[in-house]
Design goal:
Layout: H1 2-5, H2 8-27, H3 31-50, H4 53-58, H5 68-118, E1 119-124, E2 135-140, E3 146-160, E4 165-167, E5 170-173, E6 187-191, E7 206-219, E8 222-238, E9 241-247
Antiparallel strand pairs: 1-2, 2-6, 3-4, 3-5, 3-7, 7-8, 8-9
Helix pairs in contact: 2-3, 3-5
């Protein structure tokens, strides 16, 4: 059975089919089985070539008489034989390596897309009514762990003091990075990133806040690839309560504009 599989026709057909199956498995996200199939195809092809009649026919016959012309011919035939002996395995290993690189790239792209698509954000208003103590949270519903990251609050417009005080386009960027992992499957990272605005506004007199939340992060398995995802939240005061809703990041202008009033002129 083994000898039959190592013949030229079965080997060519079998390695081709196994290689195709391996690539199909990788493309279908079954990376381990795909790599195994590619490795088996490479080993099968190399073994079949090293034991093939075609390679054996390239082997030069050993010298029986030490004639100079025959020695030179033997050397040329030996070099040609060695070239064919090792060139085919080299080509097979090169194809295997390219297949493995494709598998790694496919796996990394899948992880990136999965985490980016599954990353969500939410708002937890403070019970004290201090809007600037609002906690913004990111939840990793993806299948890979998030590593180093930074949360940035970009303030489209914040209005307070009955429309007399505004903050527009002031980013309260975090001054430190977090390195502990946010695990896959629902782990959370949070931060009250509006807190640095305490020196600009009375937190108890804010009527409207339009905030874009940006998270820059890398995956634990891909520490050199930076990814970004943004969310936008609109908060408004209704009576004594301040509530937040999520809005489109690409929404033009700001729904806080109607809250802005002209400053009262001095008498």
């Amino acid at each position: 059975m083994v000898r039959f599989l190592l013949r030229k026709e079965p080997a060519v057909i079998g390695t081709g089919l196994l290689f195709t199956v391996g690539l199909s498995m990788i493309y279908g996200d079954d990376f381990i089985a795909g790599i195994v199939a590619l490795s088996l195809a490479a080993l099968w092809g190399i073994a079949a070539w090293l034991l093939s009649k075609g390679l054996e026919e390239q082997r030069p016959k050993e010298l029986t008489k030490l004639k100079y012309a025959r020695i030179e011919t033997y050397k040329r035939e030996k070099r040609r034989y060695l070239f064919w002996k090792f060139s085919i395995p080299t080509v097979i290993l090169t194809v295997w390596a390219l297949g493995a690189l494709f598998a790694i790239h496919k796996r990394d792209s899948k992880e990136e897309e999965d985490v980016l698509r599954s990353l969500t954000a939410s708002v937890v208003p403070p019970p004290s009514g201090n809007v600037l103590l609002t906690v913004f949270s990111f939840t990793n519903h993806g299948g890979a762990d998030i590593g180093k990251r930074q949360i940035i609050c970009n303030d489209h417009l914040i209005v307070g003091n009955e429309g007399q005080s505004t903050i527009r386009g002031l980013g309260s960027e975090m001054t430190h990075e977090e390195y502990f992992p946010v695990h896959s499957g629902g782990d959370v990272t949070s931060d009250p990133c509006l807190l640095p605005l305490h020196s600009y506004l009375d937190p108890n007199r804010i009527e409207c806040a339009d905030v874009e939340l940006l998270m820059e992060y890398v995956l634990v398995d891909q520490p050199k690839t930076m990814k970004r995802k943004s969310f936008r939240f609109l908060g408004r005061k209704f009576g004594t309560a301040f509530s937040w809703i999520q809005i489109s990041v690409s929404e033009p202008g700001s729904e806080c504009e109607p809250y802005v009033k002209q400053p009262i002129p001095s008498p």
